[in-house]
Amino acid sequence: MGRLGVTEILVILAVVLLLFGGKKIPELMKGLGSGIKEFKNAAKDNDQPADKKEKEEDKPA
């Protein structure tokens, strides 16, 4: 299995454009971006030490 070349990427983009249409693609990318952002935030929250998490949870809202 080799790397994707320019031709393969163009074919994939053309198929995606045909399947979803031009108006739907920005909505899909926005959803994908927000999903990635949420994933990074969740991963960052899990990386914090337990002491720091407890202090943040004890703060009043």
TrEMBL record:
Keywords: Cell membrane, Membrane, Protein transport, Translocation, Transmembrane, Transmembrane helix, Transport. It comes from the Bacteria. Pfam families: TatA_B_E. It is found in: Cell membrane. One of its GO terms (molecular function) is protein transmembrane transporter activity. GO terms for cellular component: TAT protein transport complex. The keyword Hydrolase does not apply. GO terms for biological process: protein transport by the Tat complex. The chain crosses the membrane at residues 6-22. InterPro entries: TatA/B/E, TatA/E. It is a single-pass membrane protein. Residues 40-61 are annotated as: Disordered. Belongs to the TatA/E family. Forms a complex with TatC. NCBIfam families: tatAE. Part of the twin-arginine translocation (Tat) system that transports large folded proteins containing a characteristic twin-arginine motif in their signal peptide across membranes. TatA could form the protein-conducting channel of the Tat system. This is Sec-independent protein translocase protein TatA. It comes from Flavobacterium frigoritolerans.
